[in-house]
Design brief:
The chain is an alpha+beta fold and 148 residues long. Helices cover 22% and strands 40% of the residues.
């Protein structure tokens, strides 16, 4: 019994501390996105995943029904969008969704929380304040979106 408990703990530890990779944007793009500048007639939506937990797993992300790519630990997306409602989806063991009412000239921030699931990690999406969001994004690296 003790051996099987150690084996399970070892597997869990590997899942928590492993590191999955996703294609990162050029450093110049990351620096520009972290300036948090917004066009007056547009909105920026940042989705970030700044946790280490579940770092061995990538999580597909969609914006308005189109897959943008996958997150991994310490990464983020930034979308420049038209003002109005936009749905962000995270496809893991569950499908987490959040609708952001993007305002012109504003930044909006969504934190992708990683949660334990039955067979794989789950996620939950939270809209957070600009102060919290900026801090989270600054801990992460910009993901190169998938070509459309």
């Amino acid at each position: 019994m003790e051996g099987s408990i150690k084996a399970v703990l070892f597997i869990v530890l590997c899942l928590i501390t492993g590191c999955a990779t996703v294609p990162l944007a050029p450093v110049e793009s990351d620096i520009k996105a972290k300036a948090f500048e917004v066009q007056a007639s547009k909105s920026n939506i940042y989705l970030y995943r700044n946790e280490i937990i579940g770092s061995a797993i990538t999580m597909p992300i969609g914006l308005d029904g189109s897959i943008s790519g996958k997150t991994s630990s310490k990464t983020y997306f930034m979308w420049v969008v038209e003002p109005g409602e936009h749905e962000i989806s995270s496809y893991t063991e569950n499908t987490a969704k959040i609708v952001i009412d993007a305002k012109p000239g504003k930044n909006h921030f969504v934190w992708q929380e990683v949660k334990m699931g039955v067979w794989a990690p789950r996620s939950k999406l939270h809209e957070v304040s600009e102060d919290v969001g900026r801090k989270g994004v600054l801990e992460c690296k910009l993901i190169q979106p998938e070509p459309k």
